């Protein structure tokens, strides 16, 4: 989801780290287009996908299309999301246009699968870096954010619907096979963007209900060096003995995905009948989450 302050923050616009992210991202996106995607008629989603379809089918200049199609979305971003975001996104779009116009990257492979995968990886890397810099090169994210606020559909459902239409037009204009490769490129780009924006190290919320709750708390805190949150609850209510219940502490901790298996095994050694469930979380701030715990034997 896009968030930005409404007032124009020139300090944020000219922040050196943001500019480095945006410039690096633009060069990655331009290379993905020229090296892998355009030579094979592969599409990305959103505005870029629409521009590629029109360019390849009608011969209209791609850079002109990227500017013209993005303008209404950038204006909407200025009005509805934030001026700083709109300025950084405008800079990203115009820089991409300049790079595509004046720099030419040669194609390096004719293999369609390699082109789809590495085109998606490079495009996703570029988009992710630009997002980390505070901008966008694709105005579809703006309309997704706007429509979501006025629609019962989620942002992901809107994005999938709009991009499905783009892939349908790709199949009509260029054939089923290029459209299928385009879908591979698109989903590779999405996954790579997620990795760049959110990080490769995903965090997991682990919730445990155990009759040995004191021992489990001590294990997580002392042996693995993790902070915990404790909720007062009740365990029991089994189908055969629904009337039987016991007070207990419900324990929740945040760990990395690499630590989940070790902690679950250690808990089961304490209480083989412990109940726990795992949830993936997108962002964590504060607390004790990056400390590497002791290896539990």
TrEMBL record:
List cellular component terms (GO): plasma membrane
Q: Which UniProt keywords apply?
A: Cell membrane, Membrane, Transmembrane, Transmembrane helix
InterPro entries (UniProt xref):
DUF2179, N-reg_PII/ATP_PRibTrfase_C, UPF0750_membrane, YitT
Q: Where in the cell is it found?
A: Cell membrane
Classify the main location. membrane
Name this protein carries in UniProt: Uncharacterized membrane-anchored protein YitT, contains DUF161 and DUF2179 domains
Its membrane topology is listed as: Multi-pass membrane protein
Ranges for domain DUF2179? 230-286
Q: What CDD domains has UniProt attached to this entry?
A: YitT_C
* Pfam families reported in the protein's UniProt record: DUF2179, YitT_membrane
Q: Which domain of life is it from?
A: Bacteria
What stretches pass through the bilayer? 20-38, 50-75, 81-100, 112-131, 158-176
């Amino acid at each position: 989801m896009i968030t930005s302050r409404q007032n124009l923050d020139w300090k944020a616009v000219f922040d050196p780290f943001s500019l480095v992210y945006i410039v690096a991202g633009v060069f990655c996106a331009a290379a993905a287009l020229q090296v892998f995607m355009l030579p094979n008629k592969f599409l990305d989603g959103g505005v870029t996908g629409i521009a590629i379809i029109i360019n390849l089918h009608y011969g209209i200049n791609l850079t002109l299309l990227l500017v013209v199609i993005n303008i209404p979305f950038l204006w909407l971003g200025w009005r509805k999301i934030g001026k700083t975001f709109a300025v950084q996104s405008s800079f990203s779009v115009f820089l991409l246009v300049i790079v595509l116009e004046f720099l030419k990257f040669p194609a390096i492979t004719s293999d369609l699968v390699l082109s789809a995968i590495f085109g998606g990886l490079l495009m996703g890397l570029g988009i992710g870096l630009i997002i980390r810099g505070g901008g966008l090169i694709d105005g579809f994210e703006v309309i997704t954010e706007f429509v979501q606020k006025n629609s019962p559909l989620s942002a992901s459902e809107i994005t999938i619907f709009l991009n499905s239409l783009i892939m349908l037009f790709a199949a009509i204009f260029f054939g089923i096979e290029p459209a299928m490769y385009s879908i591979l490129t698109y989903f590779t780009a999405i996954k790579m963007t997620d990795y760049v924006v959110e990080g490769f190290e995903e965090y997991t919320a682990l919730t445990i209900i155990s009759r040995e709750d004191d021992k489990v708390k001590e294990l997580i805190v002392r042996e693995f060096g993790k902070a915990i949150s404790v909720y007062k609850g009740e365990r029991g209510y089994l189908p055969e003995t629904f009337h039987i219940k016991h007070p207990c502490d419900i324990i929740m901790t945040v760990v990395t995905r690499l630590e989940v298996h070790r902690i679950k095994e250690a808990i089961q050694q304490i209480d083989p009948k412990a109940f726990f469930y795992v949830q993936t979380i997108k962002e964590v701030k504060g607390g004790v989450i990056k400390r590497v715990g002791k290896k539990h034997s």
